[in-house]
Amino acid sequence: MNFSQPGENSTQQSHHLLTCVSKQLSVFSFIIYAAIFCLGVSGNFFVIFTVFRNSKLHTPFNYLVVNLAVSDMSVLLFSLPIVVFSECFSWPFDEFLCKLSRPSFLTFTGVSVCTMVALSFERYQVVVHPLLPKMTRRKAFFIIVFVWVFAFFTFGLPRFFVFGLTTEKGILQCDPVKKSFLISTVTKIIRLTMTLILPCIAVSWAYSQVMRKLRNELALIGDAFASRDRERLRAKRNIKTMRLLATIILVFTVCFLPFNVATLFDSLPVYAEWHYNETIENMSRMFQVSHSCFNPMILCSLGSEFHKALKELCTRLLDKNLLKGRRRVYVLPQIQQSRTLKSSANTDSFDTSL
Fold first, then answer.
1. To bridge 306 with a disulfide, which of 156, 166, 241, 299 should be the other Cys (CB 3.0-4.6 Å)?
2. What is the DSSP letter of 275?
3. pLDDT tens digits for 94-108?
């Protein structure tokens, strides 16, 4: 539904909602985006803080996990406010900022995708090829820099030439200006392939190879070397890590698939005239952005080190609150009781002297 009227001026039009079919949907979207922002920022900050605070977690694997958290934080701090504002109001900036800001979401998405692939192949190298040189911290930093550069030139930069300022709904907006059906379809297919299909194939292959090797190791340890507890614990720990990575990539796929599928049909005239097309796109985009707050939840629930750190944090906060409560309730009566005991002691000594 277009809330702007033909006779209204541009100043009045800039304050009209654009994307939502109803005002109830706009309020619902704002509440959900606010919850995603609060949960995602606090959760990803906790992951980053936990890794750099605990020296035991200073490993190449956890540095890649921090990079994943940084990309999610970037989505919430930079891309989410721009997306929400540009969906609801007139675009307030110039065309260069439009070209620069809107494709940034795909850059951060590309960083997340490449980081998940790097995490999977780091485990693949450690488990399947243990004799090869392991990833060092320096190599992890090099991979992180390469991931950001690769994501910018592969995911973000091509979209720089697609976005521009348009007035499709009578209000200035930052949207794709290339309306060719062929170019739009090819671009969306490439985006779907790069962000979902190829990463899922790569991670699934690495996961299958690692799990096969670990199951063979557990069977060998259980049959012939029942006393090798250290090897058994190491294999089980690697299995938990691979299940953690599989959960992360599965949640990523579930969150990003609806929006990518929905945008494949937005160039069709039948879909463009459908009354619920904007609602479908808004809900799928909301689901896509929500991925940025799911990774900390997965790490804290399935990752033993992060789960332990979260438990310690909650214990400290609870202990502090209990200590404050004890000071308020019990300190003053103890002082009064000690004073009463002293006065009674003095009275007793006085009576005995008499």
1. 299
2. T
3. 788 888 887 788 889
